[in-house]
Amino acid sequence: MTTFSDLGLSQKVLSAVTDAGYTVPTPIQAGAIPFALQRRDICGIAQTGTGKTASFVLPMLTLLENGRARARMPRTLILEPTRELAAQVAENFEKYGKNHKLNVALLIGGVSFEEQNRKLERGADVLICTPGRLLDHCERGKLLMTGVEILVIDEADRMLDMGFIPDIERIAKMIPFTRQTLFFSATMPPEIQKLADRFLQNPERVEVSLPASTAKTVTQRLVAVHNKDYEKRSRLRDLIRAQEDLKNGIIFCNRKKDVADLFRSLERHGFSVGALHGDMDQRSRTNMLAGFKDNQITLLVASDVAARGLDIPDVSHVFNFDIPIHAEDYVHRIGRTGRAGRSGAAFTLVSKSDTKYLDAIEKLIGQKIEWLDGDLSSLPAMAESQDEGRGRRGSRDKDKDKDRGRERRGGRRSEAPAEPVKAREAEPAKAREIEEVIEPVRTEPLNSERKADRRPNPGNRNARPNPANDDQRERRRSHYRDHDDGPTPVGFGDEIPAFMLIVAAAKS
Ligand code: AMP
């Protein structure tokens, strides 16, 4: 069996690894570290949870023992798609680099430039950045990339999802051709392979297969539902309440809008819940994650993009509120539970319109997943067909109406960029769409923040708070809140035309 001391790491590093309590290198570490120490380029295919971070941090620490950093000329550069991941890597340098006197600088948004400049002036041995912030520093002339010996591009597939590839290409051009490049991605679709071919020279490919063993310790079940959000929410609540052994759980939605909606719904129903999606500000995201890790929050509603790559501890339950559109996402999601031989449970809500995604998942994992309480054929047929009929009818027109409604009210369209979650064509339910007409996507999930920001139009900075508008909005919201979670209303019901929802301007 390979041990850490077989890999060629320095004594200082080995002693820190021992102190961290790790005895056996993980497959990605055993595969990548010896080549990284030989200054070879690496194309690592591994997801979070495999010990991937240490597979580049440990050899970097060893290699950095020779040489010194010069002001404004970092010696190594690590690119991460999100601030959390960048911060996680910095923590790894602290843990494994405790016997070194290296200067590690974290350049992420939300932190003052001055503070970061001071670190750069002192000379950084390791620079950990999100691409945007790094380019900002370069444009201010505060950074010279010509001294970079090692470039790490982490989570490349996620960088692609988030549209960072042009930034990375710009950055790579500033770094000498003679550098060593360590490239990591959880998946290797053709477009990522093309990128790897561009950035790497004669790389050693180290691939860690998806943890198939996870599936053995995870009880997976499918739950038949109609494709109606209120019914899915109600079924989810029952499911959560029925789990006697639930310690904590992650609930996955396909779209950030749904993350925000489901979070609010669960919160209203008294669950201990947090949310994680791409539009949340940094402080909220950090608080939310810390709360979940400390068991102050039991449930975390998340999108794939927000949750991927985060070192979230083992969870007892995973709930797929939406079936993932990309089969690999199912494996990523399920991999959050049942770690290290522990048992876990994973439930996936499935409606009739989801069967093609279910087929793809079952094909990928090579097994049929059992249904809990009967399959789709046991669902009462009428409600589903009613729902499907509505879903098909004029959805484009609905969208147009929705847009027109927003324009009429002074461009209240959410300014948040669409989350880059590939093709997210999951059918939005009508009730949810009406809510969206009334109110743009609210992305601040913390109670305190929601209360703090009561501007009637968060998109218009000039708008002054108007308590009367707030009251009206709250009344309307609670109306929809009620039928959000209850049975389909009579009369217009879900079909209320958007124009009837516009409230006359409050008299001042
Ligand atoms: P990562 O894939 O880098 O996010 O690491 C996932 C988790 O595995 C982290 O909590 C690490 O601290 C832990 N870890 C890293 N290397 C090892 C190892 N050799 N043995 C056990 N756990 C490890």
UniProtKB/TrEMBL annotation:
Domain Helicase ATP-binding stretches: 33-206
Organism domain of life: Bacteria
SUPFAM superfamilies tied to this protein: P-loop containing nucleoside triphosphate hydrolases
Record-linked SMART domains: DEXDc, HELICc
One GO-annotated biological process of the protein: ribosome assembly
Compositionally biased intervals (Basic and acidic residues): 387-456
Region Disordered, residue ranges: 382-496
Pfam family, one: DEAD
Record domain DEAD-box RNA helicase Q: where: 2-30
Protein name: DEAD-box ATP-dependent RNA helicase RhpA
Top-level taxonomy: Bacteria, Pseudomonadati, Pseudomonadota, Alphaproteobacteria, Hyphomicrobiales
